[in-house]
Design brief:
There is one protein chain. The protein is of the alpha+beta class. About 40% of the residues lie in helices and about 10% in strands. It has twelve helices and six strands. The chain has a six-stranded antiparallel β-sheet with strand order 1-6-2-3-4-5. A hairpin with a 2-residue loop joins strand 3 and strand 4. Helix 9 packs antiparallel against helix 10 and helix 11 packs across helix 12. The two termini are about 30 Å apart.
Length: about 375
């Protein structure tokens, strides 16, 4: 049976959906069966669940994201960044104000998984704990970067991770680090510069054994001979407004006629993290490339019972319908059915279908949410 047929089949009668409410807990691990008194999980699922790995499989990471997915990620990054700039009063709300403290508490908790208390209202504490990378992490997480981005309190770590993506040709990860002389930044990209004379450069940033201070801003617009960027923990620029402390600010970066960054002397720019697909030759494409061959990879994964790999590739190709993804796995496990829907009397198969949906497909989709 073809992949297209498996996806489109209506495998389970509507009446079995009603079982889900009454028997959800029992059916979750297959403890109910009118035929045998006990129902074991389908063979091969014990090893796949629960999900223990915190990273996506290599096969998924080697399949470039669809162009539409990369473009949507870019748009989300820009939209959220502009939204947060306005949330900070367009640079007039400072970090130690009540509003600033509340926002930062949310950034730390959601962006990097840390809880911060009263210290956020202390100027002394802020002088030792810059939060610009926390801001970037919050934006990326809420924009839908998922496991592709290295969330951190330090810029160095996610810049290094994006450079490793490029060094290892991880085409399934949309974040790649380039020299400023190699690429013209686009909206959604990150522009990285040295901070405090740390000596960080493109050539040494991948070495995380030595922490080198840096900073990144997000490109929100490209204009003739300049980029408009927004960053967190930026210096006070409006003394007449009585600001005390850092904020989320916006500024312009000069570019040449090609759109490349014009270098500066102090805190020089050393890298651009591009958010884009990579073509077969390892070169950046405009917004991503197509997923030719992905159907064959899904089919191969199904034939070798690599269920999570098949699901991941199907989701990357744009399929997110729970029922269709469940059918994909179910019919791969039962090729003898040739796509034939489950009959009313086939209660064991109906329970297996629900088990696949509840314990494999839905949890996997949540990881991609």
């Amino acid at each position: 049976m073809s992949l297209e047929v498996a996806l489109e089949q209506d495998a389970i009668p509507e009446e079995y959906e009603l079982l889900d409410e009454d028997l959800a807990e029992d059916l979750a691990w297959g403890t109910v069966s009118p035929e045998a008194g006990a129902y074991l999980p389908p063979d091969g699922f014990e090893a796949a669940l629960p999900f223990r790995s915190t990273t996506l499989s290599n096969e998924i990471l080697q399949e470039a994201l669809p162009a539409a997915a990369v473009q949507q990620l870019r748009e989300n990054i820009v939209r959220l960044t502009e939204q947060q700039w306005r949330r900070w009063g367009q640079g007039t709300v400072h970090e130690t104000s009540d509003q600033g403290v509340q926002i930062l508490r949310h950034y730390y908790r959601t962006g990097v998984g840390e809880r911060r208390g009263d210290r956020l209202s202390s100027p002394v504490w802020h002088s030792q704990h810059p939060w610009s990378a926390v801001f970037i992490s919050w934006i990326m997480k809420n924009a839908g970067a998922r496991e592709f981005f290295r969330y951190s309190r330090g810029h160095h770590y996610y810049i290094a991770a994006a450079k490793r993506n490029r060094m290892n040709r991880t085409v399934g990860n949309p974040f790649w680090t380039y020299r400023v002389s190699e690429i013209a930044p686009k909206p959604g990209d990150l522009v990285c510069n040295e901070r405090a004379g740390s000596g960080v450069t493109y050539d040494n940033v991948h070495d995380v054994s030595v922490f080198r201070s840096s900073h990144s801003d997000i490109v929100t617009a490209v204009q003739p001979n300049r980029l408009i960027v927004v960053g967190g923990n930026t210096g006070q620029r409006f003394p007449r407004r009585g600001l005390a402390g850092n904020t989320v600010g916006k500024k312009a970066i000069r570019t040449d006629d090609r759109g490349f960054i014009v270098q500066r002397g102090r805190d020089p720019y050393f890298a651009v993290i591009a958010v884009q697909g990579i073509d077969a030759g390892g070169r950046p494409s405009a917004i991503g490339r197509g997923s030719s061959g992905i159907a064959q990879k899904i089919q191969a994964a199904l034939q070798s019972a690599r269920w999570t790999t098949a699901l991941g590739l199907a989701i990357l190709s744009g399929q997110r319908d729970v029922g269709k993804l469940t059918n994909l796995i179910f019919f791969a496990r039962h090729p003898e059915r040739s796509g034939r829907p489950i009959r009313r009397h086939e209660r064991t198969l109906a329970r297996e279908w629900l088990h696949i949906r509840n314990r494999l497909v839905i949890p996997f989709l949540r990881r991609f949410a």
